[in-house]
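$ run holo --ligand "2'-deoxyguanosine-5'-monophosphate" --emit tokens
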Amino acid sequence: MSSCIFCKIAAGEIPAQVVKKGDGMVAFRDLNPQAPTHVLVIPTTHLGSLNDAKDAAVLGKLMAFARDVALETGVASKGYRVVVNTNPDGGQTVFHLHLHVLGGRAMKWPPG
Ligand code: DGP
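-- output --
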């Protein structure tokens, strides 16, 4: 989608610190990190939110990609959190489906 900032990152049209890409996915560091490791995982094809993701295979690939990012950034063994904010009450601000991979510190529960 031409106006979508994450589509532009996926296309390489605006810069981002990409940590992994391939198989229709891109992972890059969040501009406003909430943990020592904070990486966003997106499908390169535009989907507005989790509500728009009808293909379970794409969701499975996204989750596996997030797990691999956690392994490759070194946070997997101590632990990490994967978050999908969805629509305004879920705290979503960028309307291109993305998974947050957060690690490098102990997480709290419940989330805010
Ligand atoms: P959410 O609130 O779940 O929609 O998270 C959107 C995240 O995207 C937020 O943590 C900040 C991040 N973000 C917004 N714009 C940019 C950008 O241009 N580059 C990068 N790397 N991250 C961005």
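-- notes --
The CA atoms of residues 70 and 76 lie 5 Å apart.
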